[in-house]
Fold:
Amino acid sequence: MSERYFAKVVKVEDKFTVVINKGSSTGLKEGDQFIVAGIGDVIMDPDTNEELGSLEIVRGKVVASHVQEKIATMKSCDVERSSGKREIKKVTSKSVGMGSIFGPQDTVTESIIPGDERLKELIGVKVGDVLIKA
Structure:
């Protein structure tokens, strides 16, 4: 394995969790973060025919959640937020007395409701994918 790659995925638990082939014996600690990537095609320069390297297909970002001596459980740590909502309320009230000279009075309230935050799935992750230090 290249020095660029820290470990390999040895088991896919679900769309958010993988197990890797490194653990505390290699210095891994809970909280360490990595990018999970699949290795794609070798890319060639069309002009020089030089090999430029293999395409890394990013599957997601993970954090070590449970570390054993030779393996570790990694969980997705990227979050995505749905778009927020902008809410504008306009209230018109009838005025009495001097206020009626100027017409009805308007009250405008504007609020922004943030979107929901959720964990991103590891897209297309499979056994053999590599981890790159984040």
Residues 5-81+118-133 form a domain with the Thrombin, subunit H fold (CATH 2.40.10.410). Strands lie at 5-14, 17-20, 33-44, 51-67, 72-76, 79-81, 85-93, 105-113, 117-119, 130-133. The chain has no helices and ten strands. The chain has a mean pLDDT of 88.
